[in-house]
Amino acid sequence: MRLLLILGALLMTDAAQAQQREWKLVIHGGAGVIERKNLSPEKDKEIRAALDHSLATGSKVLAGGGSALDAVEATVRELEDNPNFNAGRGAVFTYQGTNELDAAIMDGRTRAAGAVTGATATKNPISLARAVMEKSPHVFLSREGADEFSRQQGLEQAPPEWFATPERRRQLEELKSKSLSYFDVDLKYGTVGAVALDTQGHVAAATSTGGLTGKRWGRIGDSPIIGAGTYADDRACAISATGAGEYFIREGAAHEICARMRLAGESAQKAADVVMKEIGELGGTGGVIVVTPKGETVYSFNTPGMYRGMASAKGRSVAIYGDE
Ligand code: ASP
Asked: Could you give the 3-state DSSP secondary structure of residue 190?
């Protein structure tokens, strides 16, 4: 009896502690040459409202005691549905004029992960990535196979017109007519990502993108590559990246940030800044968002701007330009 009482008291302390634990949510909506002179006041307002709304969605999950995994999925789904971002609806076009979607999700609690590349018909690619993680024996599915798995899982499908927007088509035409490089940063903003810490102390990460405007030959960026554009590990942190994917792949960026924290004892900010500096030295531009089980939240980017935001029980904030 006494043992039971002691056990009960211990459990209650745990529950009370869990309630007091803080939650955090950090998001990005792409990085690049985003400057006041390139963005109309209306677009600026629209983007801020969209970022804030998706933060509110994820915050609701976390404030209600939901998991970091559920929060990052819900947050990214909302950004995918918003045509302002290069993910889901509003994804950039391939050279052939199609939309090929990449997404990844990772649970820091178990280091379970799921990812897809070249998906063409799933309304919310991040949920397809989650289905790969939870319903398949694999981590990474591609193209027709990913589409087939999505149908088999009964995920919501969408026709090509759902993803295609006139503005992204115009960007593809501009890229072709001016023979611009794939890395021409003006034409590809809007990859989306979210990282979260839940009240149980677990972290998760999610990233979703259409990749680069005019991509061809089945090009795959960093976003769906576990360890490059997306990573989560309760022993260190959760990361989502955006930028010129080829450099993030070469750097092993997301895993490198976690490894520096875990093995070298660096703070999240230091690890992220070092990795972004190294990416810059390779010639790459972009940014990362990071959250740790201790509640550290970080932005690090080497571009003039990054669509971004963070939320906690204390409130929400969003920003676009580097000087905010
Ligand atoms: N990282 C993405 C890719 O390379 C693009 C981006 O974040 O803008 O596919």
From this structure: coil
How far away, in angstroms, is 285 Cα from ligand 1 center? 10
The phi-psi region of residue 78 (left if phi > 0; otherwise alpha if psi is between -120 and 50; otherwise beta) is alpha
HEC sequence for 225-269:
CECCCEEEECCCEEEEEEECHHHHHHHCHHHHHHHHHHHHCCCHH
Cα(221) to centroid of ligand 1, in Å?
Answer: 6
- Residue ranges with strand state E in the chain: 24-32, 101-107, 112-119, 140-142, 192-197, 203-209, 230-233, 237-243, 286-291, 297-301, 305-312, 315-321
pLDDT digits (tens, 9 = 90+) for 157-174: 999 999 999 989 998 988
- How far is 296 from 271, CA to CA, in rounded Å? 12
Distance of CA 314 to the CA centre of its chain: 22
Residues whose CB is less than 8 angstroms from the CB of residue 274 and which lie 6 or more positions away in sequence, other chains included: 260, 266
Distance CA 262, CA 1 (A): 42
Pocket test for ligand 1, best of 99, 222, 240 (most atoms within 8 A of CB): 222
Q: What is the pLDDT of residues 207-239, one digit of tens each?
A: 999 999 999 999 999 999 999 999 999 999 999
Q: Report which of 258, 268, 196 is spatially closest to residue 233, judged by C-alpha positions.
A: 258
